[in-house]
Known about the structure:
- The protein has 19 helices and no strands.
- The longest helix is centred in the middle third of the chain and has 34 residues, at 222-255.
- The protein has helices spanning 6-26, 37-44, 48-71, 74-77, 80-101, 104-107, 110-127, 131-139, 146-170, 176-196, 214-217, 222-255, 260-288, 290-308, 315-329, 333-343, 349-375, 383-390, 392-405.
- It is mainly alpha-helical.
- The model is unreliable at 1-7 (pLDDT under 50).
- It has two domains: 13-202, Growth Hormone, Chain: A (Up-down Bundle); 211-418, Growth Hormone, Chain: A, CATH 1.20.1250.
- Helix 9 (146-170) runs antiparallel to helix 10, helix 12 (222-255) runs antiparallel to helix 15 (315-329) and helix 14 runs antiparallel to helix 19 (392-405).
Amino acid sequence: MNAPSPASDKSKWQQLLLLAVIQWLAMTLWFSASAVNGPLKKTWELSSGAEAWLTISVQLGFVIGALVSAVFNLADRISPPRLVAVCSLLGAALNAAIPLLISDELGKTDAGFLAVVLVRMATGVMLAGVYPPGMKLMATWFLRSRGLAIGVLVGALTIGSASPHLFKAIGNPEQWRTVMLVSSACAIAAAVLSATVARTGPHLPKAARFDWTYFARIWRDEAVRRANFGYLGHMFELYAMWAWAPVLVAQSLQKAGYTPTAEALAGFALVAAGGAGCVLAGLWADRIGRTYTTIASLIVSGSCALIAGSLFSQPLLLVAVCIVWGFAVVADSAQFSTAVSELCDPQYVGTALTIQTCTGFLLTTLTIRAVPAVLETTSQPNWPLATALLALGPLFGIYHMALLRQLRAAEKMAGGMR
Length: 418
């Protein structure tokens, strides 16, 4: 194979930057409602359980969308840039329907809130047509430096997930409708960029059919199973942290007399910190190996989970710990997917990644709902126990990644760096 020309090498980095911007803009939809759960809870008189459904519904929709896309090979039948554009546009419309069509009176009713949950779920379905196809587009440009490229895209997703908190801080934190509409405007911009500028690279992989029979077989392969269990430990913590750590910090700052703008900025900072974590982990994993990188990330994030809730009365220290937590909690995310793609049967990579993604996101719905349930076990919110609960995921993940490192098959990862 001939070495790429400088022009083509430049093109791939330009496309990576473009894809990162598209992912960032489109993924503002993910937490557009969760970021304003405070005003929504007050305006619509929501319980903590109902508040959790603002995020759980998106997770479930993403799982449904990922399965449908994999079964019908949508990313192979439809041009990935076009698929990303259409799904971003539809996601923007669905997201905008909530602030435009759901009145405060309707939001207080069971029927109105059910409509919101269903719309959020449909938004999650659309996001499954943005993130995985975006990863596929990246793979068409990168044969080498893929660990870094994946880290950049996951970092963009992370900053996109954090951005609604920034929108809230820049504007009026109580104007939840504005925050959601700005997120929709960002997704429309993502659709325009994908439709007009994004291109498929020269390394388009062959179409991979989804194989239901591999669902059982994948768990019998010890190396793949260990990598998947590591991922599940990671996901046990990740989205619950993203959903509830901003609430923890906001309540702590509010009690200490800080402004709502400060609360929103802190929420943005602690989630967005993961963007840098993803890029650095992508670099480290290619140099020191995937197991060391994931174990280190899990140790740091799990340690932060253990202590974060106990720092409620020390808001500035709590913010600092949560920023470190946010940096580490998502840093290893891309490495689990990369590990499975390296360890599984090459003809089933698409199926293996779909199975991993769907099981992981289904698990997040349990922990997102578990946190408010634990908070309500005492008269005052039981933050120490709620955040410590999330440390069980990293503990589980560390155990399985350490066992994976001892297997001969682990030499397939990171060019033999395990």
